[in-house]
Amino acid sequence: MDKAISRRAEEKLNRINQIRDTAERLFAQKGFFNFTMKELARKAEFALGTIYSYFQSKSQLYDTLIEGKTRELVNFVSEQVMSETTITKQLEKFIEAKLTFFHQNPDFIRLYFSETYTAPGQSQPAVFRLQQQRAALSARLTEILERGIKDGTLIPVDAKTLTRVLMGLTDGFVFSWIEAVPEKSLAIELKIAKHIFLDGVLLKPRAVKEDYL
Amino acid sequence: MDKAISRRAEEKLNRINQIRDTAERLFAQKGFFNFTMKELARKAEFALGTIYSYFQSKSQLYDTLIEGKTRELVNFVSEQVMSETTITKQLEKFIEAKLTFFHQNPDFIRLYFSETYTAPGQSQPAVFRLQQQRAALSARLTEILERGIKDGTLIPVDAKTLTRVLMGLTDGFVFSWIEAVPEKSLAIELKIAKHIFLDGVLLKPRAVKEDYL
Amino acid sequence: MDKAISRRAEEKLNRINQIRDTAERLFAQKGFFNFTMKELARKAEFALGTIYSYFQSKSQLYDTLIEGKTRELVNFVSEQVMSETTITKQLEKFIEAKLTFFHQNPDFIRLYFSETYTAPGQSQPAVFRLQQQRAALSARLTEILERGIKDGTLIPVDAKTLTRVLMGLTDGFVFSWIEAVPEKSLAIELKIAKHIFLDGVLLKPRAVKEDYL
Amino acid sequence: MDKAISRRAEEKLNRINQIRDTAERLFAQKGFFNFTMKELARKAEFALGTIYSYFQSKSQLYDTLIEGKTRELVNFVSEQVMSETTITKQLEKFIEAKLTFFHQNPDFIRLYFSETYTAPGQSQPAVFRLQQQRAALSARLTEILERGIKDGTLIPVDAKTLTRVLMGLTDGFVFSWIEAVPEKSLAIELKIAKHIFLDGVLLKPRAVKEDYL
DNA sequence: TATGAATGAGTATTCATTCAT
DNA sequence: AATGAATGAATACTCATTCAT
Questions:
Q1: Which of A170, A205, B36, B68 fits as disulfide partner to B205, beta carbons 3.0 to 4.6 Å?
Q2: This protein's superkingdom (chains A, B, C, D) (predicted)?
């Protein structure tokens, strides 16, 4: 009996996951408005009604997808960063984890950006939660940067500003993958990314550092 | 007679521009699918049919808007960059011009990202053209970087990779403005951006530069 | 063996009755279209499939309910009327029985009217049978009235017309209970009803009776 | 110009009325749930979208229909009744007006009863308003009856009860027309109805009047 | 025999686009 | 040229019914 129940539960989970995966791919490929629930049903090989027995609505399905993946992202990055101790290593780890996550979840890239893109005034659930998660990630980054600035490792710039900058920089990196994810060279890209963030692109560092507001 | 015609032509141009401006605002605020042509007509203070006498379809209006603005962007950045001679100055100018353009056209930020977001396989006209324009901008950047690498100003990295990186980095910077465009501190942001790109975030440059592939 | 079978048969009957009762309540409360078979299953505490093993379809369940209750009504009224001998008493009994039946089956009031309401051209089974039952009831009434007219007890009006009138009048009485069934005053209402049907509302009967076509 | 505008206004009114008439017929024939907006469009010879440009939704169209007709009914009956002075004449006029209205609007009979039928707890707009109008009509009737009871014209029964009774009786009369409206004999039916209400069905009034609670 | 997950036809509503005035 | 009423294809979602377990 127990076995039967768990087998059913497992099958149900599999079905849900099959829908989720198909939906994620379709949302990513076509955007929210360009795919129909009918198409999802066909691609996921379920009847329309079956989809609706697992998810309340198209929006709710979308929300669930975004929310789940974003939470994964935040957890993944947080764990990786916490495994390091020095500021420099933590920053490197942050970059590495964020880029790695998106590299492993290329479909999510579009979702992530299309959601962040949506006008904030609309305050749809998905957007709201995603922005909350982004905020959580930012807060974690700010802590590291504040410590780095205080102990003289980093340039003395307002930590909040620096946070926005680094969040943006890494987003931009990922964003460049929308057109073409570099299949094999993640290691190289990572190396370059870290280097640029930490040391800049000039071969010979400038002798005199500028003043920072 | 000539005058009358030119007055009419001017009026027509004004009308078109009024529609364009309203449309750009709406596209930016709400996204392509979240407003109706009826709403556009009402906001632009024209009849529905009038809009359609100037633009073939909603998509075509959208395409036109994206295409025009992107071309403006490319021209603006190219001109600014060409006004400088040294590699460092040109890179600084590139960053400055790109960020300035988006700072002055905040509505365009969403359009730019939402379009780039749309899946490339779809090959809708707007996306296609926008990507062509992006390619043009990238090509310009690659030239500069190649010269910089060759003359020893920049770290010896594959120029194509570095291009993608810098395009992504600047995109990311702009992207961070979607949530909140910094009204007054563009100068400061620019200073920081340039510094980070060129010198990195470490206060004391690392003594030994790593090897680059 | 016999016993076991009869126990099963009894259990089955109980199950069917539980479904019928729940269904009757739901049909009456919400109307045919405003509740789902799922809701019925939940309220009757059976699985959806179980309902369908006892009733072919939602419509057929509805039909069965209407048919059964209407047959009860006709039988009840007929029996009561047949227990009297004089015309006046029979008419009083007809009124009394009809009103009493609906008073005891308030849920059925809505069912009765909503069904009669449905367009006759549609010829759905339930409507058809209900109308047959109504016809049976009417026929019984016509007999009484014809005798009453013949023997000079009643005003000399076409019996068919008078039948329709009295059917309508009693329906109307019952109909007024849809909004609020008078809990305690059935006796009083009955007294008034009988009086009005037989003697009218004027305190002093008009001296000269009009001619009737 | 004025003319053109009024012509358009008139055409628009005609169009709306054509939709209303078709809708009233369909609602009456099939009930709310058994007809589709598509069918309405086809029967009214308009495109689906056109229907929606005149009415917000199926429900709103339904509400509008019920509300309008019911108001007509109440106004019509009120005006007729007010044109008489004696109690007896007013009661006769009430019966006459109510029956005449439904005789002239046979489609409305079903709507009227199906709406009154709908469970009151649901409190849908249409039901609510219809019941308000019914209440208004009842109130008017109560006034007349109270005066009649006071001045000794009518039997001494609680006026509220008598109101419910007479409302029910006339409803019942109309209700009997659902199955078959008597095309030619309205005058006769009216005569009989009035007679029964006022004098009852007994040819020889009973000598001793019963006591009334 | 009982269950309830899966099915998919059916329906209200929206909105880009057309075209008679 | 300008207007906006009319059009109807497209789409999210519901719910009676089936059937494998």
A1: A205
A2: Bacteria
Distance (Å, whole) CA D172 – CA C168 = 4
The CATH class of the C64-199 domain is mainly alpha
pTM: 0.86
Fold classification of B63-199 is Tetracycline Repressor; domain 2 (1.10.357)
- Range with the poorest average pLDDT among A32-41, A182-191, D111-120: D111-120
For chain C, residues classed under CATH 1.10.357.10 are: 64-199
Residues in a beta bridge with B154: A202
Alpha helix stretches (DSSP H) within chain D: 2-30, 37-44, 48-54, 58-82, 87-104, 106-117, 125-150, 159-175, 186-199
CATH superfamily of A57-199: Tetracycline Repressor, domain 2 (1.10.357.10)
Tell whether the torsion through CA atoms of C10, C12, C15 and C17 is positive or negative: negative
For residue A181, what are its two tokens? 């994810």
**Mean pLDDT, range A14-18, rounded to an integer:** 87
- CATH superfamily name and code, D1-55: Homeodomain-like (1.10.10.60)
Q: How far apart are CA B25 and CA B35, in angstroms?
A: 11
Among B118-122, C160-164, C196-200, name the most confident range.
C160-164
Residues in chain C: 213
Detail the protein residues whose CB sits closer than 7 A to any atom belonging to strand E: A 12, 15, 46-50, 52-54; B 33, 35-38, 48-49, 52, 57-59; C 12, 15, 46-50, 52-53; D 35-38, 48-49, 52-53, 57-59
> Looking at the domain that runs over D58-199, which CATH code has it been given?
1.10.357.10
